[in-house]
Amino acid sequence: MKYSENIEAIAELQPDYLGFIFWENSKRRFDSEEIPQLDSKIKKVGVFVDAKINEIIARKNQFDLDLIQLHGSESVAICEELQEQNIKIIKAFSINNQFDFSKLKQYIPYVDYFLFDTKGKLPGGNGITFDWKILENYSYEIPYFLSGGIGSTELEAVKQFIKTKAGKNCVAIDVNSRFELKSGYKNENKLRKFKKSLYEN
After folding, report:
1. Most buried of the four, 9, 111, 117, 131, by CB within 10 Å?
2. What is the mean pLDDT of residues 140-162?
3. Which of these, 57, 53, 59, 54, lies nearest to 22 by C-alpha position?
4. Would you give the DSSP letter of residue 51?
5. How far apart (Å, rounded) are the C-alpha atoms in residues 104 and 3?
6. Contact, 110 vs 76, CB < 8 A?
7. Number of H helices, E strands in the chain
8. What is the pLDDT of residue 49?
9. Arithmetic mean of pLDDT, 78-85
10. pLDDT confidence of 199, banded at 50, 70, 90?
């Protein structure tokens, strides 16, 4: 999220999370001085890419962020140090068909969630889905967010996936670029329809 009036409009839809990107190279970078007041049920997620720990902590405190999403090549040590600051962590990994899930094991003691996104040119927001069947190789109990180019055309596939064994630990569907009118500005009507349909049998 980027624009105040759009943040307020999307918050009316009561998403579980709203993301705010603080990576300076992102066209969606959040550069306002404050986030509009949100319902306490909506968790504010700050997204960082290989940022310094002091910057992450400063942003967390400035915007009262509920979770931090690490979307770069952050080490286990960085996750451990942030956890020691009582910061809840989503660690993102870019997935392709050759992804080795065993590399996640070392992160398990220090993160609250994983996020699986499509491996692409950018750390995120590439607008491309990956083959979710590869998540059958995910054998850990830590819950994860499913990300990567998910739009309205993937709705039925998402509903089917979360019923599978591979989807049993999927606790959130992360949507972004496929619901934008412009970078960082989300289409309220499309998101409302998507959310409503997601919960229909």
Report:
1. 117
2. 94
3. 59
4. -
5. 34
6. yes
7. 5, 9
8. 96
9. 96
10. confident
Q: Give the model's pLDDT for residue 97.
A: 87
CA atoms within 13 A of residue 103's CA, in its CB half-sphere: 11
pTM: predicted TM-score of the whole model, two decimal places? 0.93
What is the domain range of residue 56?
4-198
Residue 29, classified by CB atoms within 10 Å of its CB into exposed (0-12), middle (13-18) or buried (19+), is middle
Q: Tokens standing for 63?
A: 């915007």
CATH number at residue 90: 3.20.20.70
Question: DSSP readout, 98-133?
Answer: T--GGGGGGGGGG-SEEEEEE--SSSS-------GG
d(CA 78, CA 57): 12
Residue 86: the pLDDT is 95
In one letter, which amino acid is 120?
G
Number of domains in the chain: 1
Q: What is the mean pLDDT of residues 157-185?
A: 94
Angstrom distance (rounded) from CA 132 to CA 119 = 13
Question: What φ, ψ does residue 29 adopt, rounded to 5°?
Answer: -55, 130
Q: Return d(Cα 108, Cα 103) in angstroms, integer.
A: 10
Residue whose entry in the numeric block shows the structure tokens 């850990």: 140
